[in-house]
Amino acid sequence: MATTVAEQAAAVPLLKRRWQGLPYWLILPTLGYLAVFFAWPMVKSFQLAFQDVAGDWSFDSISRMYHDHEFQPALRFTLLLVVVIVPLQFVIAFVMALIVNATLRGRGLILFIFILPLAVSDLAAGLVWQQIFTDHGYLNTILQHLGIIDQPTIWIDPTHSNWLLGEVVLTEMWRSTSFIMIILVAGMQGIPKEFGEAAEVFGAGFWQRIRNVTLPMLKPALQVALLFRIIFAFEVFASVIAITGRAKTTLAGESLRWQGEYLDPHVASAYALLILVLSLVAAGIAVRALRTPKERLLR
Length: 299
What we know:
By secondary structure, the chain is an all-alpha fold. It is built from 14 helices and no strands. 77% of the residues lie in helices and 0% in strands.
């Protein structure tokens, strides 16, 4: 009997060590997937960006990218998209999340309507909105029936850069705002209702509860959503091509052009590397700006 008890006592630390190592075994498939499909292509892209055609290490691809006549317009338009789309999407997504999180009748139907654009690819969304803004598209048809305009307006006009920017922004907001909304809804559902009820008991109004309770406790979800949206905003190209054709271009679009049209993976990788660097810098600034008090204390 004593021997059995001693064996059981000796087996407890071994079993405990096995359970402590279980989480690492569980994440091994995910780490393997990331290594094969993300880390390795990233390393190869980095390698191609700093090699010439002969395979020697060189800054020739970076120089060719910088002196490309489409480089500055693509960089400028990409940065404009990020600066305009991200703040607008967060405001709209936050309002949508408040509506979904409220105790309203039919909110399941509202949620379904909100997330419906997520089923549409970026290229398909661009083609849909291109049909809206074309000369004989839905927008001109509606405006003519309402008597607002007498003849079709050329909305997709290469000479009006602001119009093209606005059309791409509308397309991207319609297509991907729901993605941010889903993250914010998940974050809101993790906030204990007692906090808001306590603030209401002490006389806090709706906007005071939003500013002093919801937003501070929503910072982790805001960080995640902002991180994803900034990265995706730098990768926009299909909707831009569908709506503007060659009138406007982005960094991702130029990377595709150098790979698909010019068959030059080195300059294409240089564009991809620039997108990666800009995404990391912008995401780092955004995450740092939204640090929680606990994260500031850990610094």
